[in-house]
Amino acid sequence: MARPLRIEYPGAWYHVTSRGNERGEIFRDDKDRKRFLEALQESVERFRVEVHCYVLMSNHFHFLLRTLEANLSRFMQRFNTAYTTYYNLRHHRAGHLYQGRFKTVVVEADEYLKELSRYLHLNPVRLKKHKELTIEEKGKILKGYRWSSVPGYMELMKRDEFVTYEAVLGYMAGDTEEGRKRYGDFVVAGLRKGMRNPLKKARGGAVLGSDSYIEWVRKTFIDGKEWTRKEQPQVRSLRGVIPVGEIARVVGEEYGVRGEELLRSRSRWREARRVMIEVNYRLNMSYRPLEQLGDELGGIGGAAVANNHMRLQKQMLKDRRLAKRVKQIQNKLISE
After folding, report:
1. Parent domain of 302
2. What is the CA radius of gyration of the chain?
3. Is residue 229 part of a domain?
4. Closest residue by Cα to residue 3 from 206, 335, 230
5. Distance from chain centroid for Cα 4
6. What one-character DSSP code corresponds to residue 207?
7. Which residues contact 259 (CB under 8 A, 6 or more apart)?
8. Residues 49 and 198 in one domain
9. Sheet of 60-67: strands edge to edge?
10. Which string of b and e fits 195-214 if b means at least 16 CB within 10 Å?
11. Number of domains making up the chain
């Protein structure tokens, strides 16, 4: 299982989340939630970390944080240990409370801070039980949800003293009555738009930002450093495009054919070529327009790349052997 990639530097912004072990609950009542926030405040003060947004759900939590020092891992270790110790003692249990290590994405604030804060704050109304509610009803739930920072963004009287509100509101009209109103409208507008999860744009599941920011992270924290095998998939994803010829070579080795044969638009190795196109689609689509990918794959055009993907997806649902083969090839390429 891949180990989360930790990128830490002073002033870094992060989205952080953690789930209960086996997706079990991490809060049984409001007393647990209050203690969780107390432990969070204690850790924030001790490690000089800013909490800009948070939301507590029954079996997981989300934070939007900024670390003034390069100390995210130490902060989260202390905080998670403090709450787990309390929870286990109170509920007469032992062992891990959370499912593995916490997950984190380092974020370029100027590009994504506003959108990410909104997506995080909308969590309470994404539950199935709220699916049929109107937008107005969902908005009312958000404004009254006690275990989130969103009420404090809309009303001064509902603020947590450990939350920093100014940065996100700075993208509106500042921490003013007008700014708070704009932010509330902005969050509710996300319900109308059916907004997508901005975290899905994170490169390698670890970095969310512009190409120039990702390039800076790669050069500063990735290149020239040793990484464990478990960290390699994320590291490889951050290093950018995998050359088409390299993918063809690895697919060719799997099928016992030269990679050059698979780069021909009329290759007689039909399954191998289709797999080669599919792996290129999976690994390089984030970096290349489909038309450009098609040109590199023998001048077949972007539509042909997309159609190959759809056909192969359907075939793999029926053919487990093929699905396993594609996954093995993909894993080999991102772990080399």
Report:
1. 241-335
2. 23
3. no
4. 230
5. 11
6. E
7. 245, 248, 249, 250, 251, 252, 253
8. yes
9. 49-56, 60-67, 12-19, 103-107, 207-208
10. eeebbeebbbbbbbbeeebb
11. 2
Percentage of residues in the chain with pLDDT exceeding 70? 91
pLDDT at 235 over 70: no
Q: If you count DSSP H runs as helices and E runs as strands, how many of each does the chain have, helices first?
A: 15, 5
pLDDT per position as a tens digit, 61-100: 999 999 999 999 999 999 999 999 999 999 999 989 999 8
Residue where the block lists tokens 């478990």: 230
Tokens 């909308």, located at residue: 122
Burial level of 7, CB count in 10 A (0-12/13-18/19+)? buried
Which of 48-62, 134-148, 248-262 is most confident? 48-62
Supply the DSSP symbol for 220. Answer: I
Q: Is residue 234 part of a domain?
A: no
> Do residues 105 and 207 touch, judged by C-beta distance below 8 A?
yes
Ranking 118-132, 272-286, 308-322 by mean pLDDT, the lowest is: 272-286
Q: β-pairing, 103-107 with 207-208?
A: parallel
pLDDT in tens, 160-193: 999 999 999 999 989 999 999 999 999 999 988 7
- Answer yes or no: do 58 and 114 share one domain: yes
Q: Are 160 and 35 contained in the same domain? A: yes
